[in-house]
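worker-03 picked up job from queue 'complexes'. Input manifest follows; two sequence lines, order preserved.
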Amino acid sequence: MWGLRAKSAFCVLAALSIGLAWPTAAVAQADDILGPQAFDGSIDLRASVVGGETGWLDGGFGKLREGGDNREQRERLRVAAANLAWKPQFCFNLAGLVSVIHQDGQSAPVDLSEAFLSYRTGPAPTRFSGRAGVFWPPVSEEHSGSTWQVTDSITPSAVNSWIGEEVKVLGFEGKLEHRLGEHKLALTAAVFEHDDMAGTLLTYRGWALHDVRTTVWSHFPLPPLSPSKAPYQAPRTDPFWETDGRVGYYARVDWQTPWPLSVNLFRYDNRGDRVSGYDNQTAWRTRFWNAGTMASLGNRTVAKAQVLWGNTRVGPDTPYGYPSDVDFAAAYVLLSRELGAGKLSVRGDWFKTHDNSYVASDDNNEYGWSGMLAYKRPVTRFADVLVELLHVRSERPMRLANAGIAPRQNQTQLQMALRVGF
Amino acid sequence: MIRPSLPIIALAAIALPAAAHARDIAVTVKDAGGHPIQDAVVTLDAPSRAGAPGHFTINQQHTMFMPFVLVVPVGSTVDFTNLDPFRHHVYSFSQAKKFELKLFGQGEKRSVTFDKPGIVALGCNIHDTMQAFVRVVDTAFAAKTGKDGRVILRGAPDGPARMTLWHPYLRAPGNQLAVSAGPGNVAVAVEVKLRRPAPMQHDY
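worker-03 finished. Artifact:
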């Protein structure tokens, strides 16, 4: 719920940030706050062709943003997303970001995506920065910018698709950066609320690959649930809900080496109490690690890789285990090479979930992989065109048990996007 | 904009009384693939008066510093001119010059005098991807390579010469290496390996 308590917490955090920054604040210029440079916007016009099973956003088990129409191939043309971000620079060390998005087919036509104040101390070998508000934790190597869009392709990896759909928080984050010769080290830590439902999609639907990002008031449908679970779980999930009032945390360590290589390690625990609920949605206890790396291979090639693994569970601890208890893991390697003005990207994904409880009546095991080929090229100063071919193969017993389709499914999606921005 | 090393080179030509023995040293810097290396600074290790302090410009345009590397005689002043339609906050915490130019907007200019020789790494507090270097020199014989990877130190004293080649990404201790040249007008070819800068971490 986006309740009064959450709003109050946000206000307190924001006030703390401003208070922290005010002594060094310089008078802002109007242009930095309301001028054209304080706004980013973009529209994503999308054409796609996909066949196979029904997509998860239409209530199926499909792994992609869209699925086939009764297993028939379907073509679509639409405005997939529109993004608008306001990024005022109040003074040299205090800035803000408020972004709203429209996403085709989502429950809220226009919704708040991120809203935070950020503070950073002056330039020095050691410096502190912080932000307070609604934001995504720093996990994804594929998203960037004020509107948190995928940079090299249309569809992010399974790892970062999940971050985008279930791991958004209302929190306070601090970061300490230190230069040690040619090494750069950073330590990030945060406390947060409003991510109690993280794990719901991962358990009942499994991994997916899509570019839909969760918003503050959005909700997503779940695929058909097992008869043993349906009485206890709403057929939807609201990823930004807070139901147990418990504060979670995450931490991250970054090392930028003197070589063209950077590595990072991230730890997350939402400390959900597993029993507090609202409207048939219960707080999940979700913990995970993420290890990421980025490297330059030659002058025009960049490699990115992440591996994420963890556990999510919900319900009381019974002699037979937790009602839902799922280990999950996913990884990808992405290579992007500049070709003239364009960029060619290829990515391989692997993903898996392992169900630790009540498998006979609710089997949430899953295994799959995916391959992607994407090309991005600017067509004008304000527009990029992207073409992406994505294939995913996965095996999930629940498809047969709950939807009557074969556990193993293949799906191929061809997309073309025209991103026009300012 | 860029004021390349022409003033320095010109001063070099009159810097030494031994002009009769002056000669030119041409240095070409390439990588193993034969690609020319731009922005490598070649400095002659020989007694020399410093060039006269000058007035130089580094622009901020398209969220970049231009030029990426600037060579200036010690005591010179550099104007930082913002040509972007948003504000920049230029700084350095290098030993040779620590300074901070808090937010200044389009068309505005801030000046800094570089009064100690050394390497000054520049950054922008608002845009972390912006990076540039000012090489402050106390010799008249210093210049940087152009797009063709070539630089000429004109009017250098004759005889065997030792030089230092520096580039911010040179794969060598201190990002520099020694280069030697024989007497007379000579052309020296140097093959270097550059360290690729780490890909930028995404902003959040």
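worker-03 released lock.
Residues 9 and 154 of chain B are 6 Å apart (CA to CA).
Chain B touches chain A at residues 85-87, 89, 91-93, 100, 102-103, 105, 123, 125-126, 195-199, 201-204 (CB under 8 Å).
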